[in-house]
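Exercise: predict the fold of this chain.
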Amino acid sequence: MKKILMIATGGTIASAEGGDGLTPAMTGEELAASVPGIKDKCDLTVLQLMNIDSTNMRPYLWGLMRDAITEHYNDYDGFVILHGTDTMAYTAAALSYLIQNSAKPIVLTGSQKPMGNPYTDAKINIYQSILYALDDNSCDVSIVFNGKVVAGTRARKQRTRSFDAFESMNFPLLAVIHDDRIVRHYIAPTTAQANMVSYQRLNDRVFVLKLTPEVKADIFELLRGHYDAIILETFGIGGIPEYDDSFEKAIFGWVDSGKTLAVTTQVPEEGCDLEVYQVGKKYSEHPGILQAADMTTEALVAKLMWILGQTNNPKEIHRLFYQTINHDRQEEL
């Protein structure tokens, strides 16, 4: 019988009503005991790593999850992390960079309604996550939720209430799960699985700047002392205002001073291409400006934190950024 380590971190799945609203209360052991049949499927061990609302998730806590997995990596066949939905996509992306080439599945799941709610989706999500973690073809980091399996770098929470909370952005689902049956859309080639590598350092000085009409370019100067990288969410496929030259000066000044800048789009699907319109093309020609293509903002945040935790050399930043990790980017849509 395969061995699974379930890591409990809190979230809605563990929450109960309190005087000030839902708050994590149930333990991982209590959650596991609430799902009929899972201990017949595997030898299950539960680790209570934390019990927080995922709104309070931080890079330091991602490190604790990485450590829990890597310290027990040789003892288990797969890992299931119970996590709040609000920052689950960020955590899945972060773990995709902190633990690379994992031949063993690292599966995140949670629920939109607490385990104690009579209409909860918690039981089926936990059950199907364990099924997926037990499957011989599963590997790397993914999210299993509402019968969907999403690559860890491609997830986004699209709905705040309904059970179908997550979508896979600009990349097919890895699989769907019907009751006990896994239907795969993608199987990782066995030759692609090198030895697992884990990384210790993240640089959390990464800021997401969303353009809005008439936003002032001097925000770059305000951010300079606090952040090493900006992810610029542009209009459309890659539009940056040029009603004057202030953005051009601010952006080129930021990059030329040794700071990192990645350009993406505010639009959820189909990615960014700075070369399409005049209002973006000049930035595509600057070698220091990183183009996100079809990456999610969640993956961009985690990837830049990981890259800048390893190096501040511009050439190495460029190399690592354009390296595809756990399906995080494809150049042509």
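Check your answer against the key: The CA atoms of residues 81 and 108 lie 5 Å apart.
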